[in-house]
């Protein structure tokens, strides 16, 4: 029996040296950037998976600082679990990525992610977390 359950995916909004890192995937057109993403693997928690993905894609160690939100990517039957991750080390981009941008928080808040509406929603939710009264 096939239930067509959504596939869990993690997303990392990476803070590296006071700037947020976004990337262009090798298969994407010029100018299209997003956060780091990857599949949740068997026996991993989402927090472990997002830290692993940051290491695999950027070559840096990460620490989850907080969850941002979850997003249904209906077209690909995915559930995206997004986290803010603070990273340290030396960036070493893997073969999947061809370009990085390093944005100040204000630049990230205003960045146009074009057709990537989930990334735009994720950044909007991140911005709301930063403006919420304590």
List its salient traits.
25% helix; alpha+beta; 134 residues; six-stranded mixed beta sheet; 6 strands; 39% strand
Main β-sheet description: 6 strands, mixed
Percent helix:
25-40%
Q: Give the helices and strands as they follow along the chain.
A: EEEHEEEHH
Distance between the termini: 48 Å
**Count of DSSP strands:** 6
Oligomeric state of the chains present here = single chain
- Classify the secondary structure makeup into a structural class: alpha+beta
Specify Rg, calculated over alpha carbons: 14 Å
The proportion of residues in beta strands is: 35-45%
Helix segment tally: 3
**Mean pLDDT across residues:** 95
- Which segments are poorly predicted (pLDDT under 50) over 5 or more consecutive residues? none
Taken from the alpha-carbon principal axes, the silhouette is globular
General description of the model:
- This protein is α+β, with helices and mostly antiparallel strands.
- It has helices at 46-58, 105-110, 117-131; strands at residues 7-16, 19-25, 36-39, 61-73, 78-88, 97-103.
- Strands 1, 2, 3, 4, 5 and 6 form a six-stranded mixed β-sheet that branches.
- The relative contact order is 0.25.
- The model has no long low-confidence stretch (mean pLDDT 95).
How do you describe this structure in short?
This protein is α+β, with helices and mostly antiparallel strands. It contains 3 helices and 6 strands, in the order E-E-E-H-E-E-E-H-H.
């Amino acid at each position: 029996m096939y239930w067509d359950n959504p596939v869990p995916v993690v997303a990392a909004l990476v803070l590296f040296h006071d700037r947020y890192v976004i990337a262009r995937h090798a298969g994407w057109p010029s100018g299209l950037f997003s956060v780091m993403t990857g599949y949740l693997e068997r026996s991993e928690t989402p927090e472990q998976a997002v830290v692993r993905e940051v290491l695999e894609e950027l070559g840096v160690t990460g620490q989850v600082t907080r969850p941002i939100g979850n997003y249904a990517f209906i077209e690909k039957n995915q559930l995206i679990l997004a986290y803010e991750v603070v990273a340290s080390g030396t960036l070493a981009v893997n073969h999947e990525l061809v370009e990085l941008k390093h944005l100040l928080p204000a630049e990230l808040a205003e960045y146009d992610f074009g057709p990537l509406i989930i990334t735009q929603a994720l950044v909007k939710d991140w911005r709301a977390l930063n403006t919420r009264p304590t």
